Amino acid sequence: MASYLLQRLAGTIPVLLLISLLVFLLIHAAPGDPTLMLLGEETNAAEVAKAKERWGLDQPLYVQYWKFLKSVAAGDFGKSFKYAEPVTHVIRTRLPATIELAIFAICIATLLAIPLGVWAGARPNSWIDNLGTTCGLFGISMPSFWLAIMLILLLAGVLNILPTSGRSTYGIAGPEQTGFYIFDSVMQKNWPAVWDALTHLFLPALALGVNMLGILMRVTRSSILEVMSEDYVRTARAKGLREKKVVWRHVASNALIPVITVVGLELGTLLSGSIIVETVFAWPGGGSLLITALNARDYPLVTGLVMTYTTAFVVINLIIDGLYAVVDPRIRY
Amino acid sequence: MQSLTLESVTEKSPSALAQILPRLHVKACTGGMIVIAFILVGVLGPAFAPHDPNKQELTAMMKAPEGIGTLHVLGTDNLGRDIFSRVIHGSRVSLMVAFAVVFVSGLIGISLGAISGYFGGKVDFLIQKLVEVIWAFPPLLLGITIMAFLGQGLFNLILALVAQRWIPYCRVVRAQTLSLRSRDFVTAAQSLGSGNFTIIARHIIPNLIQTSLVIGTFAMASSIIAEASLSFLGVGVPPEIPTWGTMLADARIYISTAWWLPLFPGLCIFITVLGINLLGDALRDLLDPRLKRTGSGI
User: Is the ipTM of this complex over 0.85?
Assistant: First the structure.
């Protein structure tokens, strides 16, 4: 199994290389000169040439790509045009917010979807099944950004019970350590700050998680339905086990294996969903940073973010592959 | 109780179709009706829209919905434009983008998938590497990047959405072609001297239509959401074309004062996508139960 994972890990390198080439070409094929954009329209040719030289934009494309590749391999994406700081630093300060949001969205999705899916799959065509199926269908059909807007409208606008933008109320959080507000505040035993961060997190995480909830619920249900007709389930029933025990011990533990893959696959959707949800809730994470960077044509920052997101996606899928073998002893690589 | 469940399990398999039929019926009918309504409104609606969707009426700004029979049924926006007319015109863009994306990505995906599976070897390797690279992008991220660098526009939008949506077709079609190419009718065609591309076009692809139809419905649902998302982020269609996504983007700053601005365009997206997903579910159950685990294809 270790050799299989190593092989997979080696296989991701050409993929990442090609991705970097694709991103690089896409950025340089774009109309609009970043130098003019940053310096303003009223600069003279000498200033433009100087700026181009400083950023290395005057060299041929393949030289630029080679330089880019070398520095990326060293974990250096250059300096952001907009923030005038190293790209890795800018991304590092914003990423914890996205990770925090994603983790909570996954928690909401799995904690609701799996029980609902198991319940629905164990009793096909009952009222709970109909309710679950409807929820699943609504979940996959709901555009997350519209749900986000509606949640703001209802819970924050009409009922006025939850904050609608940002990660925390100004001044309530203690000094930043890891960038994960909830974790930091728990470590500092600053309970009001924990509560404050949670209330800020709830709406964005819910809006982001609903889509995954729908998909997970549907996959869990159909997986349970499939396992329910297996011989070992009949055996479990025949030896007189209670239905509840049959469903959770024998059916669910086996049916949940494909669900893990789907969680992994849906992480990509979650990452891209976070770009929109972060924009709606003014959540200071990587997604809203990407939109800012794109609007400013901040090439190094966009490249850094796109590479970070895709690498994360590739690595997560690799981990899920490994995990798959751990939870299902029948799988041997 | 125990014996009852046992019986129901053993009896289930032969009459499985009979059990899902009534459910299928409801799904197919509801989904079908929504999709037909969507197509009709998209094609004919703009001709019957009560107002010009871009006409600004400064005396009638931010009017709340007044109900059926009044001048502005669903109210007006911050520039006094009629929401009802804009929603109707928006459906045309969604319809156009959705059909174009499904058609083009289907064409690319099915062809590449069939070629990949039929020929194998180097061609297969190259195509599958391409699939792997493009699939490594989180969905939407590639679309956003393409749109941001190519600029707004209907053509670019379709291109950006096709960029990833041909992949599901390609993967499923390749897998099916692998098993189809060793079937007797293909061997027969080969021994009669048919060329490779004739075999792919005449004997392989017709066998892939059913599966592709199912993938196509889910691709349509996902491209409507993706189109709206890109327009919402300001990288979709140009702002002068009314779409559901741009309407939502415009509505964002007025959430607390005018609930009707975000409600109606979003509701349109939701209902349309729900209808297409219902139809897709029904089609899948009927045509190809093996596809069950591919999810919504978003």
Answer: no
